[in-house]
Specification:
Blueprint: H1 2-16, E1 51-69, E2 83-84, E3 87-109, E4 112-133, H2 140-147, E5 152-175, E6 179-210, E7 213-227, H3 241-244, E8 247-261, E9 276-293, E10 299-304, H4 310-317, H5 323-331, E11 334-339, E12 343-347, E13 351-361, E14 364-373, E15 382-383, E16 388-397, E17 401-404, E18 407-410, E19 415-417, E20 419-423, E21 426-430, E22 441-453
Parallel strand pairs: 12-15
Antiparallel strand pairs: 1-2, 1-3, 1-22, 3-4, 4-5, 5-6, 6-7, 6-8, 7-10, 8-9, 9-12, 9-13, 10-11, 13-14, 14-16, 16-17, 16-18, 17-20, 18-19, 20-21, 21-22
Length: 472
């Protein structure tokens, strides 16, 4: 029972903690304001408002084929029941969350704008080679029995959480009768609050005949695991360590946006047509990393001893009470046991994004987006990735109201249909409406909320200035 509980806890940690900042409904919208900076820093120039302030925003997302249970919003309740999925499969999980505080945007003039704010972000990702599990697993022997057919087990997990302060600047490079080109940059100062990783390579499972019994063993293997000193020694925790041990990092976002203007004559008071036909954006996001100091319990181990059977594992790990005692037990089953010291980095979810926004008619638009990850793991390199791959978002939107229906495909092949509503200063959305009422599907959904205040009147100098009547 203890080992089954351990597997469930580990899997739940990989698949249920809480990316990139994915307010997907707003991508391409003129009314995204300061929240648009996370998709393309140049987008802060297209807002019809002189300024806006997102007082608070929150977003989270889970994608997993590890854990099943009720999905959003029911998975927020403590009474919800979760369980590890049965089967022999490659397992994965991506979890992202972020909190925005006082994110502001100010139009300096008709051709430049700034944005700024404080964010807290977290990203946990994990994947394995094929791992066989059923709810009948009771200990090491039954687990190794199920996984002998896989021959090797590999695990790759990375986690990073940080606080960032950012400043953005966007400028119009040219503005002619039929087109406009904007560019922007965001500079970020990061404080790494929590980081960790686990890598297991070539961990073999074999069976041997001993005294008329089948004995299962672990052979070979190279395992590395570590976490940041913010967490203390693993036995006790002091919240002040998160700040005392935090290291500084830096990141940058870059973006351009090419706008093909509408040739219709419109008024700033007319919401039945947009001031553009097409907006085509390209951005490079989250180019940077967080720095962490290894905790004293971080280790790299290899060369598993010849006699490590399921019975030995049961004996060595049945009384583990913390990270330190776990390391003591690991040291007895391997030949190489090396502490990890110094610093390590976890790369942010760097990606290239192409976004195309098309005005249709009235208050109807459609947005398309492709996101390509630019990071990979290997050796001493740890990184997290963007989960979003391809998205198409039809929307009906005015300054005060909006209805959004983002359809997306994740990098794991999940097909999601989301939904969002904007009503005045409030934005509410979910990433996957298909799983809202599910009770036993894989965890695959999430939600976002933001409260943004804006001036009562639009900035008359921003939209279609060439068509306004002269003032006397």
């Amino acid at each position: 029972m203890k080992y089954r509980l351990l597997l469930i806890c580990l899997s739940t940690f990989i698949a249920g903690t809480g990316y990139a900042q994915n307010y997907s409904a707003l991508h391409g919208s003129n009314y995204s304001g300061g929240l648009g900076v996370y998709n393309n820093p140049s987008s802060i120039l297209t807002s019809p408002y002189k300024w806006d302030l997102t007082v608070v925003g929150f977003q989270y997302q889970t994608i997993s084929n590890v854990v099943k249970g009720p999905n959003f919003p029911f998975n927020l309740f403590p009474s919800a029941t979760f369980y590890v999925a049965n089967g022999n499969l490659k397992r994965y999980a991506d979890i992202t969350s972020d909190v925005h505080l006082l994110n502001g945007r100010i139009a300096l003039n008709n051709s430049s704008a700034i944005a700024f704010g404080l964010n807290m972000r977290a990203n946990v990702q994990g994947k394995t080679s094929p791992v066989n599990y059923t709810d009948s697993v009771r200990g090491p022997r039954s687990f190794l029995f199920l996984n002998e057919q896989n021959r090797t087990i590999e695990v790759d997990v990375a986690s990073t959480a940080w606080m960032e302060v950012y400043g953005s600047y966007a400028k119009t490079f040219w503005d002619v009768a039929d087109s406009k080109l904007n560019g922007g940059i965001s500079l970020k100062i990061l404080r790494g609050m929590s980081g960790g990783f686990a890598q297991a390579k070539d961990v073999g499972v074999v069976s041997e005949q001993e005294n008329d019994q089948v004995v299962y063993k672990i052979v070979n293997g190279n395992v590395k695991y570590g976490y940041s000193a913010n967490h203390g020694d693993g036995e006790s925790f002091n919240a002040s360590d998160f700040f005392a041990q935090a290291k500084t990092g830096f990141a940058v976002d870059l973006g351009v946006e090419y706008i093909i203007k509408s040739q219709d004559v419109t008024s700033v008071l007319d919401e039945q047509s947009a001031d553009y036909d097409w907006k085509i954006g390209f951005s490079l996001l989250d180019l940077g990393w967080n720095n962490y100091v290894y905790s004293s319990e971080s280790r790299q181990v290899s060369a598993i001893r010849d006699d490590v059977t399921s019975l030995v594992l049961q004996e060595k790990f049945s009384h583990v009470t913390g990270v330190s005692s776990f390391n003591d037990s690991v040291a007895t089953i391997v030949n190489n046991h090396t502490p990890l010291t110094g610093n390590f980095k976890v790369m942010n979810p760097a990606r290239a994004v192409i976004n195309v926004d098309r005005y249709l008619s009235g208050n109807f638009y459609v947005n398309g987006e492709l996101s390509v990850n630019l990071t990979s793991n290997g050796g001493n390199k740890f990184s997290v990735k963007e989960s979003r791959l391809l998205a198409i978002t039809p929307r009906w939107e005015t300054r005060k109201l909006g209805f959004f229906a983002p359809v997306q495909v994740t990098r794991h092949g999940n097909f999601w249909i989301g939904g969002a509503v904007k009503a005045g200063p409030l934005l509410l959305g979910t990433h996957n409406l298909l799983n809202i009422f599910s009770k036993n599907n894989f965890l695959a959904s999430g939600a976002y909320i933001a409260f943004t205040i804006r001036p009562f009147e639009v900035n008359r100098d921003v939209r279609n200035r060439q068509y306004e009547c002269p003032r006397y």
